[in-house]
Amino acid sequence: MASRGRGARQKGFQFERDVAKAFTNTTGIEFKRGLGQTRGGGADVPDVLPEDDALSARIHIECKRQKVCSIKGAMKQAEEDIGSDPKLPIVVTKDDRKDALVTMKLDDFLPMFNAWLQAQEREQ
User: Fold this and answer.
1) How many CB atoms are closer than 10 A to CB 100?
2) Which H or E run contains 93?
């Protein structure tokens, strides 16, 4: 059980790698772990980021893997990391033995949901 210390950090790092791989496999765009938060202590570096610079300038992915995640706390951290940048905060959380969840602000989600609906209509 990795609830504290090195084991908890390793669990978090592995989750970040898993999330990056899932984004890469789904989009075809290379995603990687944002190593800056450990090397330089830079809070503005997302946990997962795309290798595409244009996309990287538009999104901020925060990942949390804990026994019980604080979704609101993770969103607050993502928003603080972004500051005044016009980036889309995306939070991916996973509680132990549960499915991973994605959290976004409603105002950010609705345009994507609308685009998805329109794509569904075109396919019919």
Assistant:
1) 16
2) strand 88-95
| Residue 67 phi, psi dihedral angles, 5° rounding | -55, -50
Cα–Cα distance for residue pair 75/105, rounded to 1 Å: 9
Query: Strand pairing partners for 62?
Result: 91
pLDDT digits (tens, 9 = 90+) for 10-44: 888 999 999 999 999 999 999 999 876 444 445 57
Query: Which residues face 81 on adjacent strands?
Result: none
- Locate the DSSP E strands across the chain: 31-33, 48-50, 59-66, 88-95, 101-103
CA dist., res. 99 & res. 82, Å (int): 26
How many angstroms separate the CA atoms of 59 and 88, rounded? 5
**10 Cβ contact list (under 8 Å, min separation 6):** 2
pTM of the model: 0.85
Residue type, 74: A
